[in-house]
């Protein structure tokens, strides 16, 4: 339990620092902004209490919001994906989720990509809808969601491959 707590604490701090120090400074063509900090929510232990992940999602989002001065939109997007996470897990992993025996390092690559893609796209739709908050600019919301999602998904997959533990 202590090891699990320390691993998740380090993951939380490292992802926040990387997001704040590196990825918040990337704004390519006004559409591409990577947000890999949501990997914390994605890879938080499945067996944990749902209220804890929602609370940690809020904390993660509000910390990012404080650095971006974005008024809570990251917190709202993180709380939404933390709340929707069980549905996305069930859709992506099926019976493995129902039995709560998902080991993210041991699942097949296609299921992992589906899971990350769904979380990222949902996060970005909420984030950019709240950021722009205008139906007349729906095309801009879709463009930012699409381009940032593609970049965030690719970056998240690369990070996952680099830092995954090989299970034999």
From TrEMBL:
It comes from Flavivirga algicola. This is Rod shape-determining protein MreD. Keywords: Cell membrane, Cell shape, Membrane, Transmembrane, Transmembrane helix. The keyword Cell inner membrane does not apply. It is found in: Cell membrane. Belongs to the MreD family. Its main location: membrane. It is a multi-pass membrane protein. The gene is mreD. The chain crosses the membrane at residues 12-31, 75-93, 113-133, 145-163. The keyword Nucleus does not apply.
């Amino acid at each position: 339990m202590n090891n699990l707590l320390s691993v998740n604490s380090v993951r939380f701090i490292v992802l926040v620092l990387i997001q704040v120090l590196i990825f918040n400074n990337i704004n390519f063509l006004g559409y591409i902004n990577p947000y890999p900090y949501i990997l914390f929510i994605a890879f938080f232990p499945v067996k944990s209490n749902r209220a804890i992940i929602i609370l940690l999602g809020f904390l993660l989002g509000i910390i990012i919001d404080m650095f971006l001065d974005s008024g809570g939109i990251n917190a709202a997007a993180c709380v939404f994906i933390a709340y929707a996470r069980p549905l996305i897990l069930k859709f992506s992993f099926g019976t493995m989720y129902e039995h709560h025996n998902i080991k993210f390092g041991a699942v097949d690559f296609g299921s992992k990509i589906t899971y990350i893609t769904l979380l990222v796209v949902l996060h970005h739709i909420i984030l950019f809808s709240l950021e722009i908050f205008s139906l007349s600019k729906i095309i801009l919301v879709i463009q930012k969601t699409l381009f940032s999602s593609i970049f965030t998904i690719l970056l998240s997959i690369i990070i996952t491959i680099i830092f995954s533990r090989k299970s034999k």
